[in-house]
């Protein structure tokens, strides 16, 4: 049975755009190589941290929503821990209502975009 998860990681702000893209690709590949299915992703860009982490006050935020088995989470988080580019991460299981809410939010965003164009 596949569960839906949301993972957000914060990469160090000293990365170039290419290095950030490489980090994102690496974590997406870990998900897809372990039979996970990426549902949605959002690049939140450079944001101010609530408190300094490793003497840094900003970080690149990236969100990935995906479906997988629970075993994948351990593999993914182990890779976050081993990667010196990642300063924080959080992965959580989305229960049914969170999944519905996220889908609704995306649809609203998309319909908002088409109205503006």
Task: Describe this structure as you would to a colleague.
Strand 2 and strand 3 (56-68) form a beta hairpin. This protein is of the alpha+beta class and 117 residues long. It has helices at residues 17-33, 71-82, 96-116, and strands spanning 3-11, 37-53, 56-68, 86-94.
Record keyword descriptors for this entry.
single chain, globular, four-stranded antiparallel sheet, 117 residues, 3 helices, alpha+beta, 41% strand, Alpha-Beta Plaits, 4 strands
Layout of strands and helices, then pairs:
Elements: E1 3-11, H1 17-33, E2 37-53, E3 56-68, H2 71-82, E4 86-94, H3 96-116
Antiparallel strand pairs: 1-3, 1-4, 2-3
Please outline what is shown here.
This protein is of the alpha+beta class and 117 residues long. The protein has helices at residues 17-33, 71-82, 96-116, and strands at 3-11, 37-53, 56-68, 86-94.
